[in-house]
Write a structure and sequence with these properties.
Blueprint (H helix, E strand, L loop, with lengths): L9 E6 H5 L5 E5 L4 H13 L9 E7 L12 H14 L1 H9 L4 H11 E5 L2 H12 L12 H10 L3 E6 L2 E6 L2
Antiparallel strand pairs: 1-2, 1-3, 4-6, 5-6
Length: about 170
């Protein structure tokens, strides 16, 4: 049973020799550790197996990744990177990971270099962006269609958005 907090990204790693012999041998492992620490815990779990050779393992479950999908053969590097991005950016990292086609480097870049902020909606972003980057005369402000500008920016691929907890997070596209 997973003794970790359900919010802590963790993986359940199973011994495949045991699994193939019809028994369950595995361990829940905190994914926010270093790659080396995770591999040490996997080695400890394999050492406890009654089946020989206990060398192969797979990820049979995971928790705390807030909807991000992991395969049973996901690399430990990807798991630790995503878990640590989630530690820094919360569940938003998991959602961006999905938008970035589960590419950890694109996810990191989006979160660390392309993030424009959290807004009530995309029109709110367009209002802030246009008023911060353009000198719109006061007599024209009532005529600016912020909704259309935001829609065009998103449809044109200039930005992408991620919804999280009722808010819209805006990112520049690369």
């Amino acid at each position: 049973m997973n003794n970790l907090d359900t919010n802590t990204p963790s993986i359940y790693v199973a011994c495949l020799s045991s699994y193939n012999a019809g028994t369950l041998r595995g361990a829940w492992i905190n994914a926010t550790q270093t790659k080396e620490d995770i591999l040490d815990e996997i080695d400890e779990m394999l050492a406890k197996s009654n089946e020989e050779p206990a060398e192969e393992w797979a990820i049979h479950d995971y928790s705390g990744f807030e909807g991000a999908g992991l395969s049973e053969w996901e690399s430990i590097e990807t798991i630790t990177a995503l878990a640590n991005l989630m530690h820094t950016h919360g569940g938003l990292a998991a959602r961006v990971y999905g938008v970035c086609d589960e590419n950890i480097e694109e996810t990191r870049e989006a979160l660390e270099e392309c993030y424009q902020g959290c807004y009530r909606d995309i029109e709110d972003w367009a209002h802030d962006f246009m008023n911060e980057t353009m000198d719109i005369p006061a007599y024209l402000k009532n005529y600016v269609d912020y909704r259309a500008f935001a829609r065009d920016a998103e449809l044109g691929g200039d930005i992408f958005t991620v919804e999280s907890e009722g808010k819209t997070h805006v990112f520049w596209s690369r």
